[in-house]
Design brief:
The chain contains 16 helices and 21 strands. A hairpin with a 2-residue loop joins β14 and β15. By secondary structure, the chain is α/β, with parallel strands linked by helices. α5 packs across α9, α7 packs across α8 and α15 crosses α16. The radius of gyration is 23 Å and the shape is globular. The strands form three sheets. It has a ten-stranded mixed beta sheet with strand order 8-7-9-6-10-11-12-13-14-15, sandwiched between helices.
Length: about 500
Amino acid sequence: MNTAQFTPAGTLTAEDLGAVHLIGIGGVGMSGLARLLLTRGIRVSGSELRNWPSLAGLRALGGTIHMTHDVANLDGVDTVVYSTAIPADHVELAEARRRGLRVLHRSEALAATMTGRKTIAISGTHGKTTTTSMVTLIFQQAGVDPSFVIGGEISEAGSNAHHGSGEYFVAEADESDRSFLLYRPYVSIITNIDEDHLNTYGNYANLAATFADFARLTDPEGFVVVCADNPGTRELAVQLRSEGRRVYTYGEAADADLRLTDVASSARGVHYLATVDGTSLGEMRLPVPGRHLGLNSAAAVLTAYHLGLPVEAARSALAAFPGVRRRFERKGSVEDITVYDEYAYHPTSMTAALRTMREVAGDGRLLVVFQPYRVYRTRDLHAELAAALGLADEVLMLEVFGPGEERGPGEGGAALLDSVDLPAGCKVFLPSFDDVAAEVVRRARPGDVVLTMGAPPISLLGDELLEALAREAATRAAAAGGTDSPSR
């Protein structure tokens, strides 16, 4: 994706777009943009082939949803929005260009909605969605009513976008296709830089250089926030400071501007003491587990602190943080077998997730149902993925999810599973989603944690697994003459 040919923030406003049609409106990114536009009073339509959960909410806001892709869907439309996943020859995209309609990449349309606001843009290889959610909740707690667009839904809040009345716009900034270079942040947060999306960047050096370019787009009156514990962002901080830019760091490193000490994580959550330049901010507590989530929260706290928001607002927001869907999301429990869902698919985030799930499992076993995401990543990070999965007690492996990619010899899920250092009886390759529920029922026992993890389609499995476990429990109870029903 060559962002030089696209429209950056500040060039258009959302109202300039007229009636907007989004191709593939149901996905997290597109549905968030659609929600934001609708709540700004802009006429929105979209096309889909799957009945995503987000569609009901968009219809309730006045959106028109077409459950087909057809040229007739563009009648009365001024602007057509597409994502990187939409091919150039898609029937609606090709027709929009033929008609001479304004055609924008999702990031361009999102940039238009930022115009006139102070944007807090959150990027990084891992932790973007969680950090964006935390920043949003802290700002809301402080009463500044930010606009926001998040690449996931804050659990229990049920929303991934909002048009606020305040001066701030909080946005997750995606580096995967370089589209974050279209934004003009007042504050840039970069959580970490890790080797990923090399199908776009070719090598780590190019990836790191592009993150630096993103940071340099930050308003001179604003600032950049980076993690002092990650080698990539630590090096970036040195580089940016040498250029005279204002950079603040956070982490457990002794020289971090916001330093975390006495960090502790358990199944009940994570807590730490926060100090900024020698001044104590007191204890920060999160009701969700994971040391890495403590780091994410520190980025949000540091940002709020330097924007002059009350520390107490940060403390209160974090103490009530409900988590983000598909990030340590508890789906339910049947007869002491608990099912969680987790988005992690890169070995670094997988390792953090699995270590945290170990805390949750306690004395129980950890069974992981994993679907690798993208052929190139599975190939290039084969050994690292296998090592991360080795933290589980048992692994149920699905085939790689890689739309538009071709698998070569040794590049599929079965080959990855072979490299996982677990006994043969503790790992199995399942070629179809239809095979998973029965296999989980066969393997799981009371006290176990079952974690579905990886590519987006696997998020649909959690409820199916709970239903299968409940049916099995009911069958056993009936056979034993009992009447108790399993609970979720």
